[in-house]
Write a structure and sequence with these properties.
- The protein is α/β, with parallel strands linked by helices.
- Helix content is 36%, strand content 14%.
- The protein has helices at 4-10, 51-64, 75-83, 100-113, 125-133, 166-175, 188-191, 226-239, 245-255, 258-277, 320-324, 356-362, 378-396, 398-403, and strands spanning 68-72, 91-95, 116-120, 150-154, 179-183, 201-205, 219-223, 282-286, 309-314, 331-332, 342-344, 368-372.
- The protein is globular and about 80 Å long.
- The mean pLDDT is 93.
Length: 409
Amino acid sequence: MTRFNTQLVHGLPVNDNTTGAVNPPIYNSSTYAFESVESMPRWDYARSGNPTRDFLERQIAQLEHGTRGFAFASGLAAIHAVLSIFKPGDRIVVGSNVYGGTYSQFNEHFTRWGLVSQPVDTNDYEALEAAISGVGVAGDEDGASEPAKAVYFETLTNPLLQVNDVAAIARIAHKYGAIVIVDNTFVTPYLQQPLDLGADIVLHSATKYLAGHSDVIAGLAVVRDDKLGERVYYAQNRLGGILPPAESDSVRRGIQTLGLRIERQQSNAVAIANWLLENPLVATVHYPGVEGGRQPGDTEKGLKGFGGVLSFEVVKGIDPAEILDNLHLFRLAVSLGAVESLAELPCRMTHFELPREERLKVGITDELIRLSIGIEDVNDLIEDLDQAFAVAAKAAKPELVGKLDGVAA
């Protein structure tokens, strides 16, 4: 059996390539010919299956140690398909700090569907077990409810980088028969394989680290057993939010360099987080890869690293928009995990769907900036941040300019 970095490059062949081509073909065919009326061909209609998409689905299942993989037109399409396997009235416990689009699906779209979502701090195991078990959940006269059908959370929360312990959460969930659904976008299978730790379904916005070049929108899901796989495949095939062949190949190509990219992005993130910790205009840094950026109780929790995303809050008196609007190398844009560095303001951009009171409750303040660190020279990135801080300090109060003296660029 080949090792992980070799699997990134080669994947699992579909055995349809008789030309000797190094790369698998891109099949831009919507339909496939039957040999006869009675035949049952492997490929019949591209919504149900496509060899190019199948290569990617087999590869992500291999990398995540699952039984089946599924490729979707976006990360949210993958989430939608997975949540659609539940029925009206089912209750799902959701990590209280999730991506804004995920929050919207749970609290707007699937509320109309009849699903019940219950937010909980997934690092508070007592509260988590009470929520999953149904003890104290409103609905019954005795203050109890049926156990939750699933628990949904992110490996590293977006944008505060809270570390979730997949194994610990899975043990609690499985005690009550709940399915464990993990969004593994921030760390990828390179840094953690949640199915090995007890998760049942793993999700990715493949737009991010897996594709890695800001040139494709894609989502992936992987299941640990065939029974779940049949349910997810039904949703994929009947809802039809599939990933087209060319985009499937773009994700496959991005995966080939995943290990190289994450190593550079992660080392750059560590250097930038340490620089921010020394910056007097920064109140708080959120990046568990450095000592000063960890939240209380954070440990590795099965992670081999913490990726290339970090966030920080500026001190009162500094306008975060002044920093963001004056960056030159960092692009002011949503998304993450690409070769170029990106910066954004969660309260106005990635998490605008959350009502302000909900954002503040989980710690997403108006002063919070999120950075996705790329593969550029880290000294150039720090110099870009340094000059943007200087502009913001000058625009705020003259006395804040002096605070930047001695901050290494």
